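#struct-pred

JT: dropping the chains for the assembly here, can someone run the whole complex?
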Amino acid sequence: MNELTPYLSALLGGIYIGLAVVWLMWANGRIAGISGILGGLLRLDKEELAWRAAFVLGLLGSPWMYSLVTGEKIFIHDGTSVETAIIAGLLVGVGTQIGSGCTSGHGVCGTSRLSARSITATLTFTVAGAVTVYLARHIFGATA
Amino acid sequence: MRTSYPLQVISAAGAGLLFGQGLIISRMIDPIKVMDFLDFSGDWDPSLAFVMLGAILVTSIGYKILFNTERPLFADLFRLPKAKNIDLRLLSGAVLFGIGWGLAGLCPGPALVDSGLGLPSVLSFVISMIIGINGYRLFRALSAKTKPQSNSE
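RK: done, full complex below.
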């Protein structure tokens, strides 16, 4: 572990994400936008539903696979209270449907295609996120 | 190869697993780390920018190669979003999303990966997010049905 470790693991993780995104396009011809995939889970069309559910199950199972391969337990820091998390979850859910995408769909897939729409969305939600963290931490003094 | 739904299911599960490994390795799954990344005025942690860098690098090269091929392995065509317009809808959706992302340090992918780790706040976020996604879609579907001619109900 040294000062570069977080940067290298971030880059490596990003490369894994890119490979997964490219794989889903290569195999299934689909954009790996998580909010789009989740939004399609209420479909009645069986073929559409099945691959979406499989992708979500893969994501849900990934901590188990990580621990199996590395032998490490996964640890994360609790970010907020349950009350804030409920409000944040609603905003994220509704926001992705109004804005047609999230960090993966706009941020990775759209930006890689140089879609002006996705790049605009990515810059917008990053600024909105930064302003929110600024207000929460430095103005309202949240502990997290 | 012909369109194969069973193979699509298997490849999608593999893509989800691999995507999750990337989120875990990069530490994008840690809400506090995400907040530190968004905290430009505080003790800024820029490392998560490298997640985007790595992902975009691989995706832009990979997509470029793929889109010169005829079709996907297990499907009939590459499906890409057609919308090009930058409008109030896109911007307001992105703003709402960004506020939620900043409040909880979670976006949909990491939230799903984290949902089995036993934190009540993460679980509340995921349930609330799914309600938000589907509630909004239901609202849209209903208002589209009732708008032109109200003979549907």
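JT: nice. Residues 5-139 of chain A form one domain. Chain A has one domain: 5-139.
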